Every structure is written in C-alpha cells, then in structure tokens.
C-alpha cells in the first residue's frame, strides 16, 4: 500500500504538508534573527511519529484487554549525530501509565507487542538508530 503526501512551500522557511487523513501540518525550522515559529521541526516530528505509532498500538491493545487507565503519555528523546546529514543515532521512548490498580503485566505486554511486533515507525527507526524503551507506573 502506497501513501502519497504533497508538501507545499508557504514562503520563507515554512511548508505545509497534507496527509492521507486529509489533515495538514505546518513545518519550519529555526531561522536566525526570527523569533516566530509557525510549525513543527521535521526531525522532531519523526519522534512524534514514533510516539504516535506506538501509542496507538498500546491503547488499542489495552482496550482489547479491557485495561482501564487514568492517563498515559510518552516522552521520546533522540540524540542527533554531529556530522551532516544529521540523524537520530539513538532514541529513548519512555512510557508513563497512570492509574490506581494498574494491571502492570498487561501494560508491559501491550508495550512489548508494539515495540517488537506492530509499530512500523519503531522498526524504521531501528534501521538507523539504537532504540531503548522504559515503562513507568504512577
């Protein structure tokens, strides 16, 4: 299955990209002497894509397992190479589960299924970066 997106230059250093969902996202970067940002950084958006992909897996799996959460979030941090072209050579994904009487083993199973089997973005990252994950319960 092929995905196709169109990215349109909006002037300056700003681009707008569509998505098969019909939604759009604005991308830009830091420009010296310019304080205003209009969009998201393309590289950092890769980290958001990783979190989104894995998070959708985790919530979907926990839903099927009838696990209730008060809240759930992920922090993703990436280390860029020093040399151009700069890319993430190491990435850490922290999963935070919130709730009382959390079923820790089911939460762990959901994360592991995402990491090892379902998350395509995670698999793409593994082609060029060392990926670490950690689970936290609150």
Automatic annotation (TrEMBL):
InterPro entries: KH_dom-like_a/b, OsmC/Ohr_fam, OsmC/Ohrsf. It comes from the Bacteria. It holds the Pfam family OsmC. Gene3D superfamilies: 3.30.300.20. PANTHER family: PROTEIN YHFA (PTHR34352:SF1). This is OsmC family protein. It comes from Winogradskyella marincola.
């Amino acid at each position: 299955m092929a995905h196709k997106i169109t990215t349109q230059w909006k002037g300056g250093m700003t681009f707008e990209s569509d998505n098969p969902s019909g939604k759009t996202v604005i991308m830009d970067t830091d420009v010296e002497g310019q304080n205003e940002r209009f969009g998201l950084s393309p590289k950092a958006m890769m980290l958001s894509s990783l979190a989104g992909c894995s998070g959708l897996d985790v919530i979907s799996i926990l839903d099927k397992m009838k696990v209730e959460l008060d809240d759930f979030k992920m922090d993703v941090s990436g280390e860029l190479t020093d040399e151009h072209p700069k890319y993430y050579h190491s990435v850490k994904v922290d999963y935070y589960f919130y709730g009382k009487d959390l079923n820790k083993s089911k939460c762990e199973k959901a994360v592991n299924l995402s990491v090892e089997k379902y998350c395509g973005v995670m698999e793409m990252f593994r082609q060029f970066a060392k990926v670490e994950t950690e689970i936290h319960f609150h």
